[in-house]
Amino acid sequence: MDVIKAAIEGEGGEARTGGVKRAVVIGAGYIGLAMTENLHERGVSVEIVKMADQIMPPLDRELTTTVENYLRAHDIAPHLRTAAAAFAERPDDRVRVDLKDNTFIDTDLVIMAAGVRPSRGLAVSAGLELGPRGGIKVDRHMRTSDPDIYAAGDAVEAEVEVEHTVLPGTWRIRLAGRANRQGRVAAENICGRDRVFESTQGTSIVKVFDMVAGGTGASESAGARTLGHVPHAQRDDAVRRRAPEAVDAQDAGRWHTAHEGGHEGRQGPESD
Ligand SMILES: Cc1cc2nc3c(=O)[nH]c(=O)nc-3n(C[C@H](O)[C@H](O)[C@H](O)COP(=O)(O)OP(=O)(O)OC[C@H]3O[C@@H](n4cnc5c(N)ncnc54)[C@H](O)[C@@H]3O)c2cc1C
């Protein structure tokens, strides 16, 4: 971050934009959007490149469209359904970003915010078993395939189907709350208590200027992918068996965007 800050501030200090007038942010997840907002507030003109057909894939499309339009209203152009194919240095010290849709953007700064990959090198060299999604396989006590080694956080993958509160299968949700709770469970077990990590429902929230978007549980598209295209009543029934309190509180599968401090919110559809 210090390098990015120095590049933006240039010689001018915090008060003005240095040499950076234009930036391209590759990726439009939470980190890409946070970078976009901060650069924009520094007076930098930002364009976003996203391979998927929407920003923030964990949220359903009808909600992200609202956020995309809100970005456009701030003169931030999302380039969707395309990806950066090449970077070339220009004679004027700028960078040309070639996109797969045969367009290009000349820019001063490129931010790569297209995903993180936890480091598993130590676990692999220790011969620990990995799960189907490539994470370090752990049981509900956070014990790896070596009973003397515990693991927690972004790099792990539970071997049982309780990793996600409402969806079946194993999931790798890379959020701090999950990592923190898993770390506590591992520590308690190491100290002789008997604790299990139950599940996570992946609650996340992002601020984009004055708009806030967030969700918890399963998006409709993730639900459809894993539970199939079934009517809502049946799907709720499947979810209720896994997380009765979530459905009863009408939390499951519901995503929300709202203007900060505002009265009006918009919620995901309640029926198919
Ligand atoms: C820019 C950014 C913003 C984020 N914002 C949020 C947010 O707002 N909310 C949220 O919930 N989550 C957020 N996350 C995700 C969150 O940071 C992670 O889910 C969380 O930090 C995972 O914790 P961890 O302990 O598994 O891994 P880490 O926090 O990455 O810690 C792993 C540590 O292990 C060290 N390490 C790796 N290999 C070795 C080795 N061989 N020997 C010794 N040490 C080693 C690493 O240096 C590192 O310090 C964000 C992530 C990023 C990158």
Protein topology:
Layout: H1 2-9, E1 22-26, H2 30-41, E2 45-49, H3 61-73, E3 77-79, E4 84-89, E5 95-99, E6 104-107, E7 109-112, H4 121-125, E8 136-138, E9 156-158, H5 176-190, E10 204-208, E11 211-215, H6 220-227, H7 232-242, H8 244-248, E12 255-259, E13 265-267
Parallel strand pairs: 1-2, 1-7, 2-3, 8-9
Antiparallel strand pairs: 4-5, 5-6, 10-11, 11-12, 12-13
What's the quick description here?
The chain has 272 residues and is α/β, with parallel strands linked by helices.
What does this structure look like?
The chain is α/β, with parallel strands linked by helices. The protein has three domains: 2-112, FAD/NAD(P)-binding domain (3-Layer(bba) Sandwich), CATH 3.50.50.60; 121-190, FAD/NAD(P)-binding domain, CATH 3.50.50.60; 204-261, no CATH class. It has eight helices and 13 strands. It has helices at residues 2-9, 30-41, 61-73, 121-125, 176-190, 220-227, 232-242, 244-248, and strands at 22-26, 45-49, 77-79, 84-89, 95-99, 104-107, 109-112, 136-138, 156-158, 204-208, 211-215, 255-259, 265-267. The strands form four sheets. It has a four-stranded parallel beta sheet with strand order 3-2-1-7, with helices on one face. The longest helix is centred in the last third of the chain and has 15 residues, at 176-190. The radius of gyration is 21 Å and the shape is globular. The structure holds flavin-adenine dinucleotide.
Question: Key features?
Answer:
single chain, 272 residues, alpha/beta, FAD/NAD(P)-binding domain, 3 domains, four-stranded parallel β-sheet, four-stranded antiparallel β-sheet, 28% helix, 21% strand, globular, disordered C terminus, binds flavin-adenine dinucleotide
